[in-house]
Amino acid sequence: MTNNENNHSFEIPPVSEQTEESPRHFEAEIPDTPKKKIRHGHFSAGFTPRRETPVPPKKDPNSNENQTTTTPSETTTNSTIPPTNSESPFLVRPIVIDKPFERVRFLALCVVMLPLSIFAFFPSLCEIVYAWYTQLDYGHGFFVIPLVVLFLYLRLDTYPGTHYRLTWIGLFPILICGIMRFFAANQYMETLDQWSLLFWILGIVWFFYGNRVFFWALPSLLFLIFMFQLPYRFEVLLRHNLQQFAAQFAAVLLQIIGEPAIPIKNTIRLSTMELAVEQACSGIRFLISIFAISFATILLIKRPWWQNIFILVIAAPIALFVNAARIAMTGILLLYFSGLITSITPERRNPAVIADEIAGIFMIFVAFGIFIAFVFYLGKVFRKVEI
Description:
The protein is mostly helical. The protein has 2 domains: 99-229, no CATH class; 233-381, no CATH class. Helices cover 55% and strands 3% of the residues. A hairpin with a 4-residue loop joins strand 4 and strand 5. The chain is globular, with a radius of gyration of 39 Å. The chain starts with a strand and ends in a 6-residue tail after the last helix.
């Protein structure tokens, strides 16, 4: 190439003579000459750069002809592909758990906080265990704590790890616990004092383990709700309403199968007898048990959030239907199988109680089967489809 103004000449080697080691951007040596004013898009000394063209690599005659080659542009493109999950510095890396520190803190909590908690809540714990032992509606409480431990153990693969600092916001549930115990002591509300234990446990976990561990363990810890008694006034009102609803619904079921039945408040007048629906037959036991099964299913089976809402809401209709069906089945057994039930009834036992127990055991399996069928149907209807 020749510069007409300054009579200087220089040469650019052809593309064929460039090697892979030579740079793609060739810089020409220009002699010292008076430079012109540089404008945007122009160079001094009248030099016009040529358009860059990719330099194809030389082919080795000894290499295989079928071997594929890559151009520098392809090499540049491939180099921008992010590495895998184990090599990418931009992806979220798994948290390294300090196991010795975790063990020391867990042992410290077991040695210090556990005896302190038992000492502080000992009267409430005694009342809770006594309710489990004496009231059939809360007999499932013996299984709540082992199930919570099982749920946490099954989720250990997603344990988020923790840090060495304390989370001061965890003192907020502990403050709520103190306020609840203060009002429970002044207003003689035993159930309120029992429920304060839940906030104490949540606060201890939040304060010592941090936000990530707290929200990781929160669904499992909320299962502890099923170990407490319902507030007395709420329980009495709920039992009364469920008792009347069960009597009317059972009479409807008997009428559907062709048996004459007339509901009168808490009793059902049949053709030859009257069937009284006691408080124990209100169905609160079925209601709490099926709600507990629904909550456990949500924790064990990974479903979308809206399916979890369906699984939790369906517990109430199933419990109401099964309890009414149990009362209707008891009436059928007393009407048509009274002789057989009387023959197998021990002395000093009421045949109606035996019939109610038989119907109750049978309806437990019915309720469990209906719930499993609903969960299975929900999973079959709504499936994940890759688009």
